[in-house]
Amino acid sequence: MFISFPYIVRPMPALPLNQFELAEAAQLKQLFIEWQQARRSQGLPASQEAAANHLQFGQSALNQYLNGKIPLNIDVAIKFSKLLGVPISAFSSTLASHADDFAAAKDAMAMATAREHDFGIVGKRITIDAQQAEHVPIKKVSLTLRAGVMGFEASQEDASESTIDLPLRFIEENDLVPQCLLAISVKGDSMWPLMIEGDVVVINIADTKPINNEFYAVNFDGEAVVKRLVRDGREWYLASMNPDPAYYRRACRGGECIIVGRVVRQEARTLMGRV
Q1: DSSP state letter for 226
Q2: Cα(223)–Cα(240) distance, rounded to whole angstroms?
Q3: Where would I find the HTH cro/C1-type domain in this sequence (predicted)?
Q4: CB 81 within 8 A of CB 97
């Protein structure tokens, strides 16, 4: 099922990286080679396999990042920064500019998952609404992929339909942080009958840890999809609900499959005019 957005930066199949992305990849590769040389001089493991273990993604994805086959995103850039001991700006000034936004999202996630103690509750409620209204406005957005924080950027839709009201009780009961919630429209019938075209779902961009059989918005090779994540052995797959054989599952791995956020709510459907 596809997320509605005004345009896709690169339709499938994904096009080659542009000259700026290639330059960033080349700079990253040079820094990686210097890191390997320094490690070897100290008698420490310096192979791509060893690096991939530290980076927590596959060696194949590492090789593709270094050789400009897939674009960097802020999450991956932070991991490389920690591995190489250099600031993100050393290989990507574009992603470095998004680091503060990403850190803010991480802080919000920590707040959302904090234990229930007095300070945590107060802090969370102030974040929601100082007046404690019964509903909280959540931005309704369109997603532009392969750029910005965690592999995507969100642009607000027309002002006449820019927010939806989410019950405050729902937010508090599920330990959610409003700043990390986005409402998106969906298209297609791959998730039928659970989701149909025109439905609105709310995603939590602070929750990107895959859980078996849960639903997520995913940047899959430069295309936005809402899918069920299924684990089979050591592999993760994107699965549809529609039983039509045309909707086969796809492997979700490396930089070609970036989780944007977990689906936490589906708004009520409007049945008028659907048949």
Answers
A1: E
A2: 15
A3: 47-91
A4: no
Residues 136/171, Cβ–Cβ less than 8 Å: yes
Give the predicted TM-score (pTM) of the model: 0.52
Beta bridge partners of 259: 218
Which of 95, 108, 71 minimizes the C-alpha distance to 255? 71
Helix then strand then coil, % of the chain, to nearest 5: 35, 25, 40
| Residue owning tokens 């078996």 | 212
C-alpha 149/C-alpha 213 separation (Å) is: 25
Residue with tokens 């937010």: 171
Per-residue pLDDT of the chain (275 residues; tens, 9 = 90+): 544 443 333 333 445 677 888 889 999 999 999 999 999 999 999 999 999 888 888 888 899 899 988 888 877 888 898 899 988 888 988 777 666 555 555 555 554 444 333 333 333 433 444 344 688 888 776 655 443 334 454 455 544 457 888 888 898 888 888 888 888 878 778 888 888 887 888 998 888 888 999 999 888 766 778 899 999 988 899 998 888 888 888 888 776 788 888 999 988 766 655 55
Report which secondary-structure segment, H or E, holds 219.
strand 215-220
Strands 135-139 and 200-204 come out as unpaired
Three-state SS letters, 177-209: CHHHEEEEEEECCCCCCCCCCCCEEEEECCCCC
